[in-house]
Amino acid sequence: MFATRFKQEKYVRILGRFWRTLWYAHSYWYAWGLFPEGTEIEIKETTRGDAYNVYDKRIERANSELSKGILNQTMTIDNGSSQSQSEVHLEVLENVIEADAKFLKGVVNDKLLPLMTRHGFNVEGYRFEYDESIDYTPDEQIRIEQMLLNAGYEIEPKFFAEKYNVKITGKKKQETTPPLANDFFA
After folding, report:
1. pLDDT per residue over 47-70, tens digit each?
2. C-alpha Rg value of the chain to the nearest Å
């Protein structure tokens, strides 16, 4: 806080501009005041309520209001809901995520990449796409591959060569042994 003896409005405005510029440049706190000389300011602390609880409730309220504004619901991230409600809200969340992803893809492809090209970045012909492939555990991958092979589907050897980084030279010839003439079980 600053006091001044100046009474003329012109000087008070100039001083105010000076202190505001100085204060903003050197402080994280943006509160300041310019009062006539002799002004007394008394700062009183509240005697009601628990300061921790007040701030904690403010944080809680801000978080819940932000989640409503961004996610259009709260039950997928907050406690206190039933399973059926959560399933509905999870579906809403998935729809919001899908819409946001589609919007972001459009912004990048239709706005950002052309702007970067105009400013000399070598991004001509690039497109932004989400990787929507499903990540499987190694055990799940093996089961799926075995299921496909056992069902009789022909899979390009190139798929396995690239996936497992192995060189495939061909199929191993199965050795057939002729039955023995004196085989008891033949």
Report:
1. 666 777 878 888 888 887 777 777
2. 35
Instruction: Work out the end-to-end distance of the chain between its first and last CA atoms, rounded to an integer number of angstroms.
Output: 107
H helices, E strands: number in the chain = 6, 2
Tokens of 6: 């100046």
Place of tokens 């003329």: 8
Phi-psi region of 4 (alpha: psi -120 to 50; beta: other; left: phi over 0): beta
CA distance 179 to 11: 114
pLDDT in tens, 111-122: 999 999 999 999
> Is residue 44 a part of any domain in this protein?
no
Please indicate, yes or no, if residue 182 is contained in any of the structural domains.
Answer: no
Do residues 107 and 158 both lie within one domain?
no
Name the token pair of 124. Answer: 């001509």
* Shared domain check, 148 and 103: no
